[in-house]
């Protein structure tokens, strides 16, 4: 007996799949399944997070609907995956945020933006908010750098603590002893697998989207999004180092590293989310967890807005629009940070963790077979 | 869809591996091609949707094959498994052609992978389809569509107009786009056998056929085969024979595919509805033992049997779709199986008493055997004594039939008078009996389908041009 209805269904499917095994060459889920004969809740949550939702196993399955065995692994694991996010959320009281995620993220974003606008206004004169500020330290006329760093540092730190607690719960549930010796090789393997989205390729032909033809570009758009995000994060990190190590204050000229990184990342973070959203719309609803549409869209839109407001700020930073745009950008980024542990962002964290576990299992199996 | 009232160069009836290889090969040779698949789109492909590999000869190891499998070795295997019931010339031709199929099929979009978990014994001889048979079919259909092959689903053919061995037209049950009669210059029949046609099976098996389970779709009814044989095509293969394995009695009537199979016979005993053993469960190793049990169960009363084992062996075989039925005692298990408890206890007690000491090894013909009972269990005999006691109910699962149309090396049908047909070709299960008069070896059905499908398509296109 399992904790939830969807885990019951996942167990039923894994029993069907384990007696077939035709899909074992497609991705990591099926080889991991084959290492087991029975499935605990943790095992199923592990498999659910290992699944990259490429859809190949559905299209290839001789038992998918309308067959009476009704095997739909991508959808079932998508639902189980989303429910696992709530199950591992920390603190528990925020688990409900996953239930109506689109609404929650929208509200947090709206309040954050409003808070920055009113904050700037309350702190200074309205004229400062709509004034033209240029040269080093221009942003800090609206909000002192230390206040900005403290606020965002705290938000980021909170997100990290909450995410670590979630991963800890996940790691325990999928059966790894806590505090186990770090396995560098497995970690490296997982970084490589995640970095190239190895299992989002339908076993080599690409993802399945609106029909049985692999035409999907999700992997490409995801790369734009992920590496765009990474570059933006690098931009912020470099800027922080500039500020504290060399006392060089933003805004920086267009050719300077933070701006170059931020611009490149920003472009990726505009193209990627638009592509992902378009693909999300096109996908056959039989493959996806329709109830979590809001969660997916909210996260994609937040990433897009982060980039859009950042790019607008870059372009219009020497005009009177700078103040409101800064408030807008900071509001979006702040809400992105604080909602990280309670939205689609966690998919990357849990999937990466599952990949680490898979790399370790593979090694243990190969080792065992060699003995 | 194109105008179906026009005359096509090549009409392919059927929708599996052989049909699609024929369609692609004919189209690549420049012919206009229409494929009529009698099943709905989801169930397209007949038995191909349940396959997973193909047996092709190769002179050296490849990326996915662990070693060479020469033409000679393939021929020796075929000779042994058919007991000589094979057309040597055709069989050797097929084996030779199979070498190139390994590459040709990849050019049609099919992808290979090394042998699946639990099938290590096939790693050298058989190439596995990445994602299984339906993935293979999807790739072939995609290629056929891109090449401009016309494909119609739910397109059941109810009559063939044939004059003196010459195909003229096919009549559809339901008109498609206003067309109810399809004309073509050449016909490729690749519509499989009659394993899903219970009425036809009853002609040879009587009422017992009602208790058969069919491993493939309900659309493998053999109607095209029947029409061809009725219109002068020479038959081949024993009409009374079919390939049957023991599958779980709880499986659906049709299309349970590979996952309902049981490979646990050697780890226990098999009893019939009277709780009596009826055959040596340890006679031979896989796959031979696997293929005989369908027939053995078919010969038992009510066509049902029970594989009985104990809790010590549950991890010795692949996980099963249906869980074993369990009982804390033999009597309790018998109750759940609706067998006579006293009879089952007697059978197991006698069996246990007959088990001789030995060293168990399921990978070889080991020395664990019984003494003094009939039938004996000649290998892998161990006492059934550790509860819970477990059982799988099994019935005959019919995979394919052997009756087919006689063909020559061009895959061209041969008429009853011995003359080759003017424009009719056959490929796949519908002509498998030419090569495979009896028996089976993993992946050989797909080899027959791809090799003769490719040849049939090419020859039909050539025929249509002339």
TrEMBL record, chain A:
Signal peptide annotation: none
Keywords: Membrane, Transmembrane, Transmembrane helix
Superkingdom of the organism of origin: Bacteria
SUPFAM superfamilies according to UniProt: 4Fe-4S ferredoxins, Respiratory nitrate reductase 1 gamma chain
InterPro entries: Citrate_utilization_prot_B, NarG-like_sf
The keyword Transmembrane helix appears for this protein: yes
Record-annotated membrane-spanning stretches: 102-123, 147-171, 224-245, 257-277, 297-316, 322-342
Keyword Transmembrane helix: yes
Name listed for the protein in its UniProt record: Tricarballylate utilization protein B
Organism: Bradyrhizobium jicamae
Gene name of the record: tcuB
